[in-house]
Amino acid sequence: MSGTVGGVNSVLRALVDGNGGLVTRRAASQVLPRWVLEDASRSGRLLRLLPGVYVDAALVDGVESAPPLARVTPILARRAAVAYTGGRGALSHLTALDVWKLRSQPPSEPVHLNVPIGVGLRSWPHLVVHHRRSFAPEPPHALVRDGVPVTRLDRTLVDAWPLLPPADRPATLIGAVNDRLTTPQRIAAALATAPKLADRAALRGLLDRLAAGCRSPLEIWGHDHVFVGPGMPAFQRQARVRLGGRVVYLDLFAEAELVDIELDGAASHADPRDREIDLRRDALLAASGVLVVRFSHRRLLHEPDEVRRETLAVLATRRRQDFVPDPGLRRRLLIE
Fold first, then answer.
1. Chain center to CA of 129
2. Taking Cα atoms as reference points, which of 289, 283, 301, 221 lies closest to residue 254?
């Protein structure tokens, strides 16, 4: 018979410690009689987080009346949820967004799992189980990230959309696209498989703006309210150019007029060094014949009509016959 360590069977203790504080009934039953695990649970040395999933009681904290899964760290709660699936599910929705490092999930939110239809798993306090048709916890539906299975990013963004606070929605998708983790087209393809998604039209509208090249809430505002319509050119949004040996992106580039409209966010130039970097970049563009026009966050939001008039005036000036674009500009800047 095995000895005890700290009041727990030594073999069971080794299982718990070797798995970062967790043990499943299935794993314990392979090496120990069932009563050993039950005894550790009854004595309070282990706490049942989910059916068949136990944790070292020393790792449990928080209010005793809270669900057990809410009384351990988020990482431990996710590992417990994955263990509960027995390899048949993957973290999804808001939980997957956290794993993808796009939004930190508050402790008050439950853990989310996707499992195939027909898997006999159900939701529990602080755990939401989503049964999905044609889902499998393997590529292309899921992959392993930070040691846990998680739904692929484009599907995660679509699934999480109606659950996110409205204020968090645009920034989450914009962050994923800006970090080149996915593309508007891939997210749109995932959206096409979710015809009944709540607030689907709003997500579709945001994806249209991202596909048009908008890469910030301010650019979306400008797209919708200022830089479209009569007299405005078909701006290249986030035009990629090589400048001074490095790649930079121009917010809105009118190639025929050689005008770059830059939209400075609310936090722009809080650091003088950032201002110096922008001025140096603007000077290099000017030396190549590109006129840079900057509009502040405040002006764009509170003076959209004036910003529009100024933009049209600048473009009109650059279209005059005495303005001759440098034919070698594209070659030097490698505009893409």
1. 21
2. 289
- Residues 110-129 as b or e (16 or more Cβ within 10 Å = b): bbbbbbbeebebeebebbbb
Express each pLDDT in 274-333 by its tens digit. Answer: 788 888 889 989 988 899 999 998 999 999 999 999 999 999 998 875 555 555 555 555
User: Residue 91's beta-bridge partner residues?
Assistant: 113, 150
The predicted model scores a pTM of: 0.81
Backbone torsions φ then ψ of 255, nearest 5 degrees = -65, -40
DSSP designation for 161: G
Look at residues 151, 79, 72, 63 and name the one whose alpha carbon lies nearest to residue 107. Answer: 72
Taking 3-state DSSP, the helix, strand and coil percentages for the chain, each rounded to the nearest 5, stand at 45, 20, 35
- Domains for the chain: give ranges and CATH numbers: 4-60 (1.10.10), 81-211 (no CATH), 217-333 (3.40.960.10)
Strands, E, within the chain: which ranges? 4-5, 8-9, 22-24, 46-50, 53-56, 90-91, 111-116, 127-132, 142-145, 148-151, 236-243, 246-254, 259-264, 291-296
Decide: 92 and 129 in contact? Cβ < 8 Å. no
Q: What does the alpha-carbon distance between residue 256 and residue 260 come to, in Å, rounded to a whole number?
A: 11
